[in-house]
Amino acid sequence: MHNLAMALHEKGFTITGSDDEIFEPSRTRLEKYGLLPNELGWFPERITPNLDAVILGMHAREDNPELIKAKELGIQIFSYPEYLYEQTKDKKRVVIAGSHGKTTITSMIMHVLKHVGLDFDYMVGASVEGFDTMVRLSEDSPVAIFEGDEYLSSPIDRRPKFHLYKPHIALISGIAWDHINVFPTFEIYKEQFITFVNSMEHNGTLYYYEGDPVLAEVVSKSTNNICKVPYKEHAHMIREHDAYLISQSGSYKLHVFGGHNLQNVNGAKLICNQLGVNDVEFYKAIASFKGAAKRLQVLKSSVNCTAYLDFAHAPSKVKATVNAMKEYYPERKLIACLELHTFSSLNSDFLGEYKNSMNAADTAIVYFNPETLRHKQLPEISPNQVKNAFGGNMKVFTQSSDLVSFLKSINHLGSNLLLMSSGNFGGLDLTTLVKELMINC
User: Which residue among 9, 209, 291, 357 is least crowded, i.e. fewest CB within 10 A of its CB?
Assistant: First the structure.
């Protein structure tokens, strides 16, 4: 939401906003743009007939006093995705969807288009090197690239966000059950992707990863009049911990690695080709792509050990990330640590989806904070439940101090440390922790 506020401010709109809590880096960035509210809280008196529109974020509730006032005054209320569509309905819209990989693929496309000098609007779910904000909305750019999230649009609009964009070009990277609090069965979750495909503009083009049988089933059920194009992993070779793309114009070294990223690269290439980027331009640009923030992001590296931070939290993401690390560094010990932080991951009915997802790690660790369960009003789970659900020989911690003590007891020489979470492991300063762990590497 704060990125959207900054984007509209840059476009020349008069923007105000309210929230009852604002964390970093949002606070500092809003302050820089002169958009930080003078005080926290909800102030219905600020909702007046002079407003053209209210954009509602997921944090507000249905009984929010400002929302109630806006309804009383008949002011137009948009959800976040509704407003993105409103701003780009006259542009060619490209939407990247899927249970995993959508942030990375969107970031790859943005990186390449910027590299070749094409003008475009965008919305992406992570910080990307070379871009000041995660949202851009302009008057003149002919194309909009959106990351298509399947979560709900707003407290008063229960449609998944990606149902509202009506893309001309779309990509689905894969389908694996997530968001159990919203989609209580896998069948209901799959239906959202069928609806997404059917929401595309007629005669559009859909790219989809051919190695996912669930995705192939979803695509086959679509009745939309669109072109459906499967894709697979890009041709490559692995040499000394690096992946090289193989093409007719030569080989190109990548900064990212793992089978999932080689799928992502090929999907991004097909989208860029359709937007007018030729193969040679694409390969030269993608060779300098270093990944989106918190996607196998290097926290610290030395000759003998490296620490990575990754946003992986859903079972399919965890398995792909752990396997990629072991595939590219077979000679190094892999210490993989996952925080269960989301509603789905902390739900006892969903835990079984993680079965064998961390088996490739030499040392597998799971951390969860019982306070997070209470905050999300979920039933308690025990360390033994977690251990049995994941399978294999693993450590489970519920106190961040115990987790730190265990990590400090390990010799990290000749190893990789992989930290996976959408949270922060109970408030740990990960940068400082990693420096302490790797002091002898």
Answer: 9
